[in-house]
Amino acid sequence: TDAILEVDGCLFPADIILREGLAYTKNFPVREDDVFIVTYPKSGTTWMQEILSLIMNDVDISKVESVPNRNRAPWLELATAPVYLDGRESPRLATTHVYATFAPTQIMQGKGKVVYVYRNPKDTLISFYHFHNMAKFLSTPESFESFVSDFMNEKLSFGSWFEHIKTWMDVRDKAKLMFIAYEDLHKDLAGSVTHIATFLGKKLDAEKLKVLVDHCSFSSMKNNNMVNYSEVPRTYFDRGQKFMRKGTVGDWKTMFTVAMNEEFDAFVREKMKGYELDDGWTSDTK
Ligand code: A3P
């Protein structure tokens, strides 16, 4: 089904997110060396799960090749989170799609570290649109136009792209937080990984960096059953679609008309006033 849970004005897919999961998330006892991946859906979550799993395991491939990403970097808000997080040895890696206002309060007291990945909202929208046609816990869009309108009107599951990033930007002085764009990973994966490793107090030598970069390429991840969701039960995903879809920058150009694009860009500029991002895409609107 595609039932909705609404909490404090934010919508969640009720088949996979329960109030208990949100309470667990909020009250999560954070350890100093916990690392959290925070994203609005379809912004590069899986990519960052693989990158961080490797950085935190000293690029030991044997640590990631037999465990699915969702067990190595479990979502805090999912019902299975306690199984994979409570009592797990440090350093732990966890993932969440929630606004900062739903996140573990101890993160805002400076505990743990957060890597926030964001992506051009138009590409995020396109990827989320296709994902809605694949995931059974999300409603199938009536049309692309209606989906764009739902995105702009903050009517999608996991809430609003705008609210999401703004709530996290609002806590950047309280939380130990770094922002990185999907587009940066694309442009320079090795450089981005080095930057992330430094944030975590790690250093990778050239050989390890190369192993990581090769392992995390789109083609390699597309064929990796531990991250491509190919073994997830049919109850969740329609088998006809691929989770590792295109992995490109600028795919919005295949679906936005010139008029839609102009309207959307103006809307983003208005919404993000006072929250300007250091990104590679707000200027790339043509
Ligand atoms: P597309 O639908 O545009 O292909 P998330 O993991 O947050 O759900 O995001 C999924 C998006 O990230 C998908 O985008 C997917 O293809 C892309 N992605 C996953 N791994 C990637 C990689 N190694 N390189 C580039 N893009 C990747």
UniProtKB/TrEMBL annotation:
Highest taxon of source: Eukaryota
GO molecular function, one term: sulfotransferase activity
All copies of domain Sulfotransferase, residue ranges: 33-275
Broadest EC class assigned to this enzyme: transferase
InterPro entries the UniProt entry points to: P-loop_NTPase, Sulfotransferase_dom
Keywords (A to Z) from UniProt: Cytoplasm, Transferase
Main location: cytoplasm
GO CC, any one term: cytoplasm
EC number(s) on file: 2.8.2.-
Ranges annotated as spanning the membrane: none
Compartments it resides in: Cytoplasm
PANTHER family in alphabetical order: SULFOTRANSFERASE SULT
Similarity section: Belongs to the sulfotransferase 1 family.
Protein name as annotated: Sulfotransferase
Gene name in the database record: LOC116945839
